[in-house]
Amino acid sequence: MKAYFIFNKYLENDKFKCLKNSFSEEAKALNIDIEFVSNSKSWQLVVEDKFDKRDFVLFWDKDVKLAKVLEDSAHKVINSSNAIEICDDKSKTFIALLNHKIRQPLTIVSPLIFYGSLASDIDFIDSAINKIGFPMIVKECFGSFGEQVYLINDKEELISKIDKIGIKPFIIQEFIKSSFGKDLRLYVVGNKVLASMKRENSRGDFRANIEIGGTGSLYNANDKQVEMAIKVSKEIGLEFGGIDLLFGENDEPIFCEANSNAYFNEMNRVANIRIEHHILKHIMSLV
Hints:
By secondary structure, the chain is of the alpha+beta class.
């Protein structure tokens, strides 16, 4: 079996290199001839009509346009461009799950603007405050590793943050105080939860991401948490990914985010598992 692994040329950090090595070793063990190609090189091959057919394309990037072009050329792309697009844009994730009985924080999506910012739209700001209240969370629609997520405590701070965001889309969400500095990541492959990890930040940050100081520990997810993670994965159309849940009162799950190419180094460590093995085995069952 032959495959491409597409990654972002401009995000080759140590964490990615570790993940790349994991996939390389596992592919060899499963007798998969896998070629690692950057998104930049892939676009070049597409332009030159030299992107040869392989059994599948493991798409570890958010270059949605590239994924769509490959799909239109009859390549088997996993995850699909649609699933990646929904995960990458937090407003699209919210809308995709809105009518599927999946609890989410109260959420307001910013209107589309072409220049300036919404900071001068006091009617919009006041309506958001009346709906959500303080403290609140502001998230830029595009961002990773817990970045571009802000805890806002008053109107002046909200106006300042919206002004800095400018024309970029964002959402405003209810702050779930019972989940301050902690969340739950469940790794789903083929609509099955492989492992769950509780992430906690002991530095006083409201975010629990590993990249900004959070630490992971093995967690025995309850039935409601597992059910929500699987349902989210199905509704978005993910073949694999990380589903992040918040802890509501009495540990009731509240959906936070979905990640189409979630890193799993820490999950592998705490759960003593090889998620890359399960991802590749699942993909092999699809092609």
